[in-house]
Amino acid sequence: MNVTESCIFSAALLASSALAGLPALAQGAQRVDVLHWWTSGGEAAALNVLKQNLNGEGVVWQDVPVAGGGGEQAMTVLRARVTSGNPPTASQMLGFDIQDWAEQGVLADLNAIATKENWDKNIPAALQQFSKYKGTWVAAPVNLHSTNWIWINKKVFDDLGLKPPQNWDEFIAALDKVKASGKTALAHGGQPWQDATIFDSVVIATGGPDFYKKALIDLDPEALGSDTMKKVFERMIQLRKYVDNNFSGRDWNLASAMVIRGDAAVQIMGDWAKGEFVNAGKKPGTDFICTRFPGTQGVVTFNTDQFAMFKVGADRQAAQQKMAMAIEDPGFQSSFNVVKGSAPARTDVSDAAFDDCGKKAIADVKEAVAKGTLLGSLAHGHAARAAVKNAMYDVITAVFNGDYAPDQGVKELVTAVAGAKQ
Is 358 helix (H, G, I), strand (E, B) or coil? Predict the structure, then answer.
């Protein structure tokens, strides 16, 4: 067996394992089998709302959970199933992966449902660019995670007489004061995607949303090689001095824990960090503060989880359509995202059930939609395709760790993007 055959065989085994133990169906029962990687307690509980909704409509949910937060294992199982002619009804999917599957002609046409349920009106265009392929809806977005947040230990700031910073200079002044007190100013994990999460926000704070679009979405060589980008790298190096010496390889949730305990003051991280604070019994506004990265209010960088719908037989289409409609039901959008920590994918969902951070997230998304400043996150795969993103990761991390001076970093960034686009 050669390497390729071995990989396919392994994927087939994974697929078989994932499908093992599924319940037997009554003859003629409607069903959906759903591949996903939401296996943690809170995520599984949130997803259970969707299962119950469908069960109430006579649709049996067959779960195909594949553990692994990034979804790599899930995509391996998915490839095996599609290759064998047995696609799932739906699969959790991110960003450009949806477009890649759509290009292969294996995704279903959801336009009739989308028209009936007013998806075009109520789902932001920035999300639709991933949900649609050549004008056809092929996926239903579940949430909108925003990434340009900072999370502050309120007691640390209060003890030092600090308020949430509104701009870069205030941010640096606050970090200086925390560092002088002997605490870690900036909790961070030294992993490329975490470095890039900081980079996203620094680009906006330094050059504004139009510069972000040109550099990280349009991949304009002039913007990538500009003095503005040099200043971005200078600021990345400036932030590095506020990170503790043990940051290398630290997972993001461990950095969150530093802020929760009060060992550190601030973390720059997406809104999934809120779950760590809430699970630790902390309350927004009382124990911690959620605010936009200084200088980025009015802009929201995002990534979005979606369920891509696959072409299935006529006997499975009615259940699939019910699932697509259930995902975009405002009640489900509220219930799921209250637990997940994200904002709803629809802009017409009430914020009544959300905490203060959730209410701010929903309001900020509406503001960004109105301004045209809802922008895909580079760090989280919604600005550029994987090859470009990974090439940029390498340069960003090298600059942050002091391997490149800002001048050299700019040159390396231009070269890396040009090479990855070929």
Answer: helix
